Amino acid sequence: MTVSDTTTGPVPHGARSAAFFDLDKTVIAKSSALAFNKPFFAQGLLNRRSVLKGTYAQFLFQLSGADHDQMDRMRAHLTDMCTGWDVEQVKSIVGETLHDIVTPLVFAEAADLIASHKLCGRDVVIVSASGAEIVGPIARALGATHAMATQMVVEDGRYTGEVAFYCFADGKAAAIRELARREGYALEHCYAYSDSITDLPMLETVGHPSVVNPDRALRKEAAARDWPVLTFSRPVSLRDRIPAPSGAALATTTAVAVTALAAGALSYALLRRFVF
């Protein structure tokens, strides 16, 4: 099925609608939660063992993704790992390395689909379990209207290790419903896209779900429900489309770079299953 087959025309008169996109393996070709291993290692936030685990975990993620159990273990591990990290240091590293890390991860098909929805009069929302420091800039580069991501608790400028909001599974669906209530979206006229069975609640929330590069479980679910199945395979560079974040933007960002935290955490979860 082609991208154009999933956008059926303009928003019905008098209704507001949106298209909700998962990030990893839907909009970008890799795991954003593992992408920042090297710069965080260079700044002393991760050790060499964590980087090696992250490299292997990225490989496993490319092959099969992460299921509910693996993501739950990731969440539990990151609460221990991130405790005491300096927020401003994390923000600075993300700001300095964003261009090199993001380029060339974005699927051309995803960028085209986002543009198509905007032309049809829909808002575009990126919804991800990764941290807002990563999700937000990518969303802005793609012209998205909103971004929803995981946020961590911060006290005295450091991460406590507690999760303020985990944008995952049912959490994504709840966030979508809340945003729809606030923005006046008619969910029956909304669209959603994801690659993972963990996003089934998100897909069920809207009237027009589609799956992108689906894992085995989601492909089976899509076949049973007759949902469109899309294949995205052409990553493109966004270096010229992502503006360098200003100092003010970084200073006012309040979410935690869960991308970096999850790099070690998801690595631990996957390697515990496959190595230890």
TrEMBL record:
CDD domains: HAD_PGPPase. The keyword DNA-binding does not apply. One of its GO terms (molecular function) is hydrolase activity. InterPro entries: HAD-like_SerB, HAD-like_sf, HAD_hydro_SerB1, HAD_sf. Signal peptide: none annotated. Keywords: Hydrolase, Magnesium, Membrane, Metal-binding, Transmembrane, Transmembrane helix. The keyword GTP-binding does not apply. The chain crosses the membrane at residues 248-271. PANTHER family: PHOSPHATASE RV3661-RELATED, PHOSPHOSERINE PHOSPHATASE. NCBIfam families: HAD-SF-IB, HAD-SF-IB-hyp1. Belongs to the HAD-like hydrolase superfamily. SerB family. This is Inhibition of morphological differentiation protein. It comes from Mycolicibacillus trivialis. The lineage of its organism: Bacteria, Bacillati, Actinomycetota, Actinomycetes, Mycobacteriales.
